């Protein structure tokens, strides 16, 4: 899922009842949803950032039992293009930033760190202080973000971290 506003957003991929993953992508224009070009690899619990004219998605799970994927795709407003995959296959991540300056944070399997996106490829950064999955993150770029909540094991926590581009 990605979107910079409530009138230019995408919802990409996912799962229906059972173990079927879908590659369907829909765009929201502020009033209604419209089917647009499907992703190349359908998955669930991936992450994305961008707008309805430029976006990226990464990671997720396919099938049952779940298989983690390292797939990374970019959206140019018309089609999805597979690009260099994420360094570590995973799901349940959080994303922040834009299509040229983004982050992927946390995920499953734990422990997982932070990867930065420059519009062309992902690079491994330092690890989170407390690696966890299913947390929420947001931020304006790959140098300013936060990551809060999540689960380092079977308990949920109230941890919060900020990212300044290096720590």
How would you describe the overall organization of this protein?
This protein is mostly beta strands and 167 residues long. The protein contains no helices and 17 strands. The chain has strands at residues 2-3, 9-15, 21-28, 33-36, 47-50, 55-58, 61-62, 67-68, 72-75, 80-83, 94-97, 102-105, 113-117, 122-127, 136-141, 144-148, 160-163. The strands form five sheets. The protein has a four-stranded antiparallel sheet with strand order 1-2-3-4, with no helix packed on it. The protein has a four-stranded antiparallel sheet with strand order 5-6-9-10, with no helix packed on it. A four-stranded antiparallel sheet has the order 11-12-13-14, with no helix packed on it. A hairpin with a 4-residue loop joins strand 7 and strand 8 (67-68). The two termini are 26 Å apart.
């Amino acid at each position: 899922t990605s979107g910079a506003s409530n009138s230019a957003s995408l919802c990409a991929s996912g799962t229906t009842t059972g173990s079927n993953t879908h590659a369907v992508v829909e765009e929201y224009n502020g009033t209604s949803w419209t089917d647009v070009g499907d992703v190349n690899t359908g998955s669930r619990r991936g992450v994305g950032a961008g707008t309805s004219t430029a976006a990226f998605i990464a990671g997720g799970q396919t099938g049952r039992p779940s298989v983690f994927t390292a797939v990374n795709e970019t959206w140019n407003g018309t089609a999805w293009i597979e690009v260099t995959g994420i360094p570590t296959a995973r799901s349940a991540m959080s994303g922040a930033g834009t299509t040229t300056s983004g982050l992927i944070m946390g995920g499953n399997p734990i422990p997982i760190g932070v990867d930065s996106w420059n519009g062309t490829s992902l690079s491994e950064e330092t690890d989170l202080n407390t690696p966890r999955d299913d947390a929420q993150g947001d931020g304006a770029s790959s140098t300013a973000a936060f990551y809060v909540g999540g689960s380092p094991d079977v308990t949920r926590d109230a941890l919060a971290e900020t990212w300044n581009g290096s720590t």
